[in-house]
Amino acid sequence: MKIYTKKGDKGETSLIGGDRVKKHHIRIEAYGTIDELNSYIGILRSFTSDAINTNVLPEVQDRLFTIGSILASAPGSKMIVPDLHETDIVLLEKSIDKMHEELPELKSFVLPAGSLEIAHCHVARCICRRAERLIVDLAENQEVEPGIIQYVNRLSDYLFVLGRYTARMQGVEEVSWKPRIGNR
Description:
Largest sheet: 2 strands, antiparallel
CATH architecture: Up-down Bundle
Number of helices: 5
Helix content: 55-70%
Low-confidence stretches: none
Number of strands: 2
């Protein structure tokens, strides 16, 4: 089977279930950003060796494929796609809690800096937040499974804490934001 079909050469693509939409459609933007995030999680996996996240990040990537499949489905499609479960969200929450036990109290905003790994966690968090905004936008006009928004929201929290946890594990001091206040 060839990888190219030429069906998208005029700026349209097919959703699961057969509907054709423009490639800039909000649904395509949403699941495309989930795909981008999934690729970025792959980068994080190459850096991570601690016990907490070695097992969590592959699960996250699998769930992101699930979310992408759901979002790529035409509304009302009869095609069977994987599903998201409450336990997927619970896994993130337990991982956040476990990492949080190792962290000092957060007393200021932190800058996405300190090491390459920490910065990558924050880039992934930003991509996750963009995906969340796109999914919420999609949900204003079309039905979106509520668990998707909840999962992506929790994932951005997880990625933030992962950045802080990575700093702690590397012995790197977090870079606090010190706002410049004075005459304007």
